[in-house]
Write a structure and sequence with these properties.
With 405 residues, the chain is of the alpha/beta class. It contains twelve helices and 21 strands.
Length: 405
């Protein structure tokens, strides 16, 4: 469809403005100024939102995790799972995602070429982690230098390990060579870890600054996996632009982030996923013990971050095969804020965090024609976001990629 008009929908444009029933005109993949010409696309009774953006995904962790890293799954199966997850993201209304560790550049280009269904993907390639830190899933007896044997060039590479600043510089340059468009470092321990605790800090400020320097040289940024305040402060002072999770952010740390214009991407859906059914992710049940209390602390941190005026995006962080209900993240955030807050975080704010402001995230002339038509009004019932069946029509860059009418 080169030019068409969507008529009859209630439009929630992503800016935070009140919904309105307006006609949306699409021309050559871009939202155009409305006029009377073009094929009419009836959307009576449906609600239109911008295409959703998930700022924290792991397409490369779409298989049961422990079997994946124990070489019990074939490359063919891993690839099938990755591409199935990419298609499921699109069907759930997500037209753009930021992959925060796990895929190699081949996945990004294969989806971009249209050879498999999937959202627009921005990727950091492999996560940068401290030797033996969060992001390392080798066995205790396995020599560190063998970790790269777990990578499948062109498909998946979870993390690269660095023992010092020089190794980190080499590794981030390698990540960029493989197609990374930004960098992610793990600067604290993690929930899904076997070699550290949430209270651990990882990488020194000087080491983090090396990654920031390399990213700046390429006109991009560093985001960090971080749960505790010391790790967050180290990263902010080193010049990173975004913090993932932020579980224990306190008021002084939030103030520091605000002073440096550092964004936050909380991740609630993965916590629910692990509490509900740890085994479905392919992880040991013992991980569940590490999750207890995280949901409540992350909710408190979200409130602190809002009070400090931080830009707060939205990410699901889903892992393993069960990634079909990605929109649950919006429903969870709607319960902590408002449905409109959750939607703006998943559209306009996420676009800003990803460096796509003015391109996606808002339904307005000149933006990419990425939008979803929902069965009902998710502002009145945010649980609609959780079920992909409620995303009746998904349009990406002006192309209808799902249509259940």
């Amino acid at each position: 469809m080169g030019r068409f008009q969507v008529v009859g929908a209630t439009v929630v444009d992503g800016s935070g403005r009140d919904p309105a029933e307006v006609t949306v005109t699409v021309e050559d993949g871009v939202i155009a100024e409305s006029d009377a010409s073009g094929e009419r696309f009836a959307a009576d009774g449906l609600t239109m939102t911008p295409g959703l953006i998930d700022a924290h995904v792991h397409l490369g962790l779409s298989s049961p995790i422990e079997p994946q890293f124990a070489f019990r799954l074939s490359t063919a199966e891993l690839a099938a799972d990755i591409f199935a997850t990419a298609g499921a993201a699109l069907d759930a209304g997500f037209t753009t995602v930021r992959d925060t560790g796990g895929i190699d550049g081949g996945v990004v280009t294969t989806i971009a070429k249209g050879k498999v269904r999937g959202p627009r993907v921005l990727s950091c390639g492999p996560v940068q982690c401290q030797t033996g830190g969060h992001g390392y899933y080798g066995a205790e007896w396995e020599p560190t230098e063998r970790w790269s044997d777990h990578h499948i060039p062109g498909l998946c590479a979870l993390s690269m390990q660095s023992g010092n600043a020089n190794e980190l510089r080499s590794n981030v340059r390698e990540a960029f060579r493989r197609g990374a468009s930004f960098l992610k470092l793990c600067v604290t321990g993690g929930v899904v870890s076997s070699h550290d605790q949430l209270t651990d800090t990882q990488f020194t400020g000087e080491e983090i600054a090396v990654a920031v320097q390399e990213a700046a040289a390429r006109g991009t940024y560093v985001t960090v996996h971080a749960h505790n305040n010391e790790g967050i402060r180290n990263a902010v002072e080193a010049g990173v632009r975004c913090v993932e999770h932020g579980t224990d952010i306190d008021e002084p740390t939030a103030a520091l982030m605000a002073a440096h214009d550092v964004a936050l991407v909380p991740t609630f859906a993965v916590v629910e996923q692990l509490l509900r059914d740890t085994a479905s992710t392919g992880l040991n049940e013992s991980i569940r013990e590490r999750v207890l209390g995280v949901r409540e602390r992350m909710a408190e941190a979200l409130a602190v971050a809002k009070k400090a005026g931080l830009r707060i995006g939205l990410g699901s962080d889903l892992i393993g095969p069960a990634q079909h209900h990605r929109g649950e993240e919006l429903a969870l955030r709607a319960g902590l804020e408002t449905p409109m807050d959750a939607l703006v975080a998943a559209t306009k704010t996420n676009a800003e965090i990803l460096g796509l402001a003015g391109e996606v995230g808002v339904i307005a002339p000149g933006f990419q024609a990425d939008f979803v038509l929902w069965n009902g009004n998710p502002l009145e019932n945010p649980q609609l976001f959780s079920d992909p069946a409620n995303a009746i029509v998904v349009v990406q860059a002006g192309r209808v990629v799902k249509d259940l009418r």
